[in-house]
Structure formats: C-alpha cells, structure tokens
Amino acid sequence: MPDGPVFTKSEYAYSEIKRRILADELAAGTVVNQEVLSAELSMSTTPVREALKRLSTEGLVRLDSYRNAQVTDLTESEARSLFEVRMSLDPLAVELAAQRRSDADIARISRTLQTLEPLTASVGVEAFAAHRDFHRTLYTASANAPLVEILEGLWDKADRYRQLGLRESAGSMDVERVRREHEALASAVIAGETERAAQVMREHIAHSLGRRALTALESGA
Fold first, then answer.
1. What does the alpha-carbon distance between residue 71 and residue 139 come to, in Å, rounded to a whole number?
2. Which of 70, 88, 126, 134 is the Cys-Cys partner for 112 at CB 3.0 to 4.6 Å?
3. Where are the transmembrane segments (predicted)?
4. Cα(180)–Cα(186) distance, integer angstroms
C-alpha cells in the first residue's frame, strides 16, 4: 500500500479496484483473478473479497455463487435508465436546493465551483472527484436525505458511462458549455431561483457525458 491517507486494507483494495475499473484497466467482462490481484496489492485475498463484495453493491462487478467476480458490461439499457432517472431527480434536487440552501451550503457551493476543471480524456481521478463534490454540494443543499442517497448511488453506477462519454469527442465548445452550465447552476441555487436552477440542470443532463455514452451505445460503439 502506498504512503498517503490512512486506509484499511479493504478500503484500499476497494479504492484501487474501482480506480482500475473506471480507468478501463479492468475492462467490462474481465474476470477478476483474486489471487493475482491480492499479490499486486500486497495483501491477502480477504480484503480483496470484501472490496469486491462492496463493488458488487454498486453494480461494478458481478459475484457468482463461488465468489468469482466479473466486471459488469456497459449496456444501452442501463445507460438509458440512468439518464432517465437523473433527468427527473437532478432538477428536483437543485430546485429544492434553491429553496432551502443555507449560508453554509452557499459557501460550499462557491468553494467547490472554484475547484472544477474540464473533464477530458486525459484528466485524473482528482478532476472527477471535484466534479462529484460540486454536484454533491448541490444535492446536499436540498435538505432531502433520501434524495441525496439515491443520487449518490446513481453517481457510482454512472461513473463508467462518463468514462465512455469522455472517449467520444469533446472539443473546446463542450468544455466552455459545461463551464457555463456549472456557473449557472451555482448562481441559480445561490440566488434562490428555483425554476432557473431546474431548467439549467435539465440542459446539463441533456448534454452530459452520460447522454454521450448512451448515444455511443445506441450506435453500437
């Protein structure tokens, strides 16, 4: 295990295996050899099994009755389902956030907005984490815990589809559009403009990486 933040072996295995899946180092359909993976991570198979069980609850791997693990496939049907649910729930979250945001929420939204950088095929996990943190602050400001929990779970499932979306073309116009949308989302929520917040979020989801991934899968990519 590398130096840095203190993790249990199970937490480190979870983080590293998930990183490899999202980076396509463990591609869809790959059968995970637990013994090989344990050796690569310098630990026993027990924390690796615990990590794989956790990843199975997020839909990233599939466990059979013998505890063998396989990276799940990316499917058109799941991409469409995730897109449809987010198109309904994300606008609701920011609409509620615009109504209920606290001073602390406003401060967090402003701070996380400043940490964003364009998501391109070459960015690291930090850029994805910053993107998630920004959206999480918007969700949290809704003061609706069940809604936040649902959206957090959807985010886990959608991460690989975002990676697929990034492999499609993303020119300077896309980068600039996303920057404007993030700024407009923050502005609308902070200003308490419920209808504008919901509309900007609908437009944001309509042009999202998830939508781009769905288009690619529909075309047989």
1. 29
2. 134
3. none
4. 10
27-76 pLDDT, tens per residue?
889 999 899 999 999 999 999 999 999 999 888 899 987 767 999 999 99
166 contacts: CB under 8 Å, gap ≥ 6: 119, 120, 121, 209
Average pLDDT, the chain: 89
Q: Write the DSSP assignment of 121-189 as a string of letters.
A: TT--HHHHHHHHHHHHHHHHTT--HHHHHHHHHHHHHHHHHHHHHHHS---HHHHHHHHHHHHHHHHHH
Buried b (16+ CB within 10 A) or exposed e, 3-38: eeeeeebbbbbbebbbebbbeeebeeebebebeebb
Residue 160 has a pLDDT of: 84
For each of the domains in the chain, give its residue range(s) and CATH number, in order of start. Answer: 9-71 (1.10.10.10), 76-218 (1.20.120.530)
For residue 32, report the phi and psi dihedrals to the nearest 5 degrees. -85, 120
**Closest to 31 (Cα-Cα) out of 66, 79, 1, 57:** 66
